[in-house]
Amino acid sequence: QVQLVESGGRLVQAGGSLRLACAASGRAFSTYAMGWFRQAPGKEREFVAAISWSGDNTYYTDSVKGRFTISRDNAKNTMYLQMNRLKPEDTAVYYCAAAVGYTIVVFSTDYQYWGQGTQVTVSS
């Protein structure tokens, strides 16, 4: 069983930056493909970014390319999402997720483990 705990969400002004963290339990973190998703009020959960188990491969949804950076530190069992030039439309609950048996994953249905989420609010 994998437990994921997100942190770092808060209220920030448009144009500002935040770094989210996702801490994972267990010794197999370095074998998991990881990802970030978000869900805004009244909307479906959407894919934000994904990273391979090694950290060598990353993938982003178009709306965050050039502004967000996903990374991981396997020695610390932690994944990060650096978010720059934040916009009000980035406001959402951000979730991290882990997938076993994949190199890199973009579909939510392929992730087996999810965190509880952290709220990011961007004011205009």
Structure, explained:
It is a single chain. By secondary structure, the protein is mainly β. The chain is 0% helix and 47% strand. Strands 2, 4, 5, 6, 9, 10 and 11 form a seven-stranded mixed β-sheet that branches. It has a four-stranded antiparallel β-sheet with strand order 1-3-8-7, with no helix packed on it.
List keywords for this structure.
four-stranded antiparallel beta sheet, 124 residues, globular, single chain, mainly beta
* Mean residue pLDDT: 96
Report the strand count.
Answer: 11
Please report which band the strand proportion falls in: under 5%, 5-15%, 15-25%, 25-35%, 35-45% or over 45%. over 45%
How would you describe the oligomerization state of the chains in this entry?
A: single chain
Low-confidence stretches: none
Rounded to the nearest angstrom, the radius of gyration is 13 Å
- What overall geometry do the principal axes of the alpha carbons give? globular
Fraction of residues in H or I helices = under 10%
Protein structure class = mainly beta
Element order: H for helix, E for strand: EEEEEEEEEEE
Main beta sheet, described? 7 strands, mixed
Summed up, the helix count is 0
End-to-end span in angstroms?
Answer: 40 Å
